[in-house]
Amino acid sequence: MTSQKPITLRDVALLAGVSQSAVSRTFTPGASVAATTRIRVQDAARMLGYRPNAIARTLTTRRSRMIGVVVSYMQSQFYPLVIEKLSQALRHHGYQVLLFISDRNESGRPDLDDKLQDVMQYQVDGLVLLSVTVSLALALECQSTGVPVVLLNCEAPVNGVSSVASDNVEGGRLAARALIDAGCRRIAYIAGVENALTQIERQRGFLQTLGQSGVELFGRAVGNYSYDGARRAARELCTVHTRPDGIFVANDHMAIAVMDTLRSELGLSVPQDVAIVGFDNVPQSAWSAYGLTTIEQDAGQLVRTTVEVLLQGIDSQSLPTREAIVPVRLIRRQTV
Asked: Tens digits of per-residue pLDDT, 279-300?
């Protein structure tokens, strides 16, 4: 029994009555081809059962049309939202996403250096590092091989590497102002991961505005950007004789955990007993059970800017690095 002869690009060209280069352009993302030619080629390919070979195309063009996306953790509802939008935007430009979850080191922080060596084996055309830690040496090594790197909301800045981030300092300021304007004076803060850049900047803006308003920080606890960590932080702050009357929580994922703890475990009302402000504006924050007042990170703009910087890096290795800051805004709901 003989195996069926594989359908080739030449077979499709003969049936469609076009050149082999026209067939190749039809199946090359971003390539120019007439609409009528595209239809004829696609019809012929369907009739023959032809499927383009992405691996073979990579060997020919030396472009994999793949972008490596590395994220440190997926607990927060914000990161799946960003990854979804990033995947859609890159697919629109003819790229596919390879997603990698980085491990955490002994201190609980994401550590990318070992993981990045694995990612580079896939010959990706570019890298997006989402909320991870990477050494300067390794980031520059990637760039030296012609693979542009963009840091998206990363936990530590890297000189000489392009980055895109929300205005976390301004977000902290907006959170403080919302609580102060609501009449809160015993104001506490639940931090994310210590020494993470996003955490440091949100806290800095928050404390600046408290100080400018003559309000001292009433209490501080660390939630490590996790649900269970935020519940422990809420207990630490609110099971004392005098509890805070307002809390800024470093992201919505933790803010939801704080609200669950205050209501179901400690018997407190939000915002009557304790006002809450989160950070991210994930879809769940608008659910009627929470109605969370929060600082919105514009996921769409973060992704658009990241893709723009990344594609410019792929097309031209001589472009200077960029540091883009995306504005944030306060979303008022029922928790303040």
From this structure: 999 999 999 999 999 999 999 9
Residue 197 maps to a domain = yes
Q: Which domain holds residue 128?
A: 66-166+299-326
Q: Quote the pTM value.
A: 0.79
**Any idea which residue has 């009557």 for tokens?**
272
Question: E-assigned strands of the chain?
Answer: 66-71, 96-101, 126-130, 149-152, 162-166, 187-191, 217-222, 246-249, 275-280, 293-297, 323-326, 328-331
> Based on the domain organization, do 93 and 139 belong to the same domain?
yes
Claim to verify: residue 260 and residue 273 sit in the same structural domain: yes
Same domain, 174 and 292: yes
Give backbone dihedrals phi and psi of 160, rounded to 5 degrees, phi first: 85, 5
Structural domains counted in the chain: 3
* The pLDDT of residue 63 is above 70: no
Q: How far is CA 197 from the centre of its chain?
A: 14
